[in-house]
Design goal:
By secondary structure, the chain is mostly helical. The protein contains six helices and five strands, in the order H-H-H-E-H-E-H-H-E-E-E. The termini are far apart.
Length: 168
Amino acid sequence: MIAIPVETDIMIAILNLPKEIANNGIFKDQFNDLANRSSNYWQGLAEHTALRIREFGRLQGYKKAKARYYKLVVILDDRTSDICRALAAQDKIYPLNDALEVMDSLMALDTKSNSLDDAREYIKALAPWIKDDQIEYDSEMNPVGISGAHTPFPPFHWKCRTTTELLG
């Protein structure tokens, strides 16, 4: 038997959600606003979820290695977003404990005790994505930084290719 990585199982489950929502009264009531999303949305959500899980695994590995800090590894090419270019320009060192605290809070979210809308708002408040108006540009319109609060680890947006790297 071939072992299927956990992230593959999650991607398959997410890609099957539209069918589940349409066929299940409980899902239909709670997730009605998601029932008509395109297959591109579901593919993006599956990829995003797999990226988040992979990053959680990296953070746990850094913790086991007793690291205190990490940095971002941004792929810089013609597909790199302004968000990731700005993060690369900052070349910031991130405290691992801050990221672990956010990760642990996300993992502890009790979706049975909270409504879906409350859970969404909690996640957005705890680990907000970077918005376009947070990107700082130089006089030549090159992204040079990010202002304001944002999630301390990738993914920072749909299709994000940024990862993290352990620092001693």
